[in-house]
Automatic annotation (TrEMBL):
Protein name (database record): UDP-glucuronate decarboxylase
Family per record: Belongs to the NAD(P)-dependent epimerase/dehydratase family. UDP-glucuronic acid decarboxylase subfamily.
Domain of life, source organism: Eukaryota
Keywords in alphabetical order: Decarboxylase, Lyase, NAD
Amino acid sequence: MNIDDGRVVSNFIAQAIRGESLTVQLPGTQTRSFCYVSDMVDGLIRLMEGDNTGPINIGNPGEFTMVELAETVKELINPNVKIISVENTPDDPRQRKPDITKAKELLGWEPKVKLRDGVPLMEEDFRQRLAVPKKV
């Protein structure tokens, strides 16, 4: 992921590494589902190598509110940062959660990497690219 691509996970991780406040858009109860890249690639390879066509959702149905995500990033990366609320855009969806029933049935696929396991992997990559070592 690009560090400053505007996506919530990369925003929170970069903010935490830089020691900046994590900016949660109001109301903070909107949900997103996060799929780690290795799971996404595995699902896409299974889809490409198979005989199934048509829409098949590849994603993670695990749902987190933006506040839960911010609290998780704070806990795992930088417990000293603050979480602040900022105004939201009017077209922000309230919920995102893929239905992966077809992926399970047709591809034998479901995500394996949990959010709490993926965040530290992203932190390590982001720290290298930002040249900000982890304090011991």
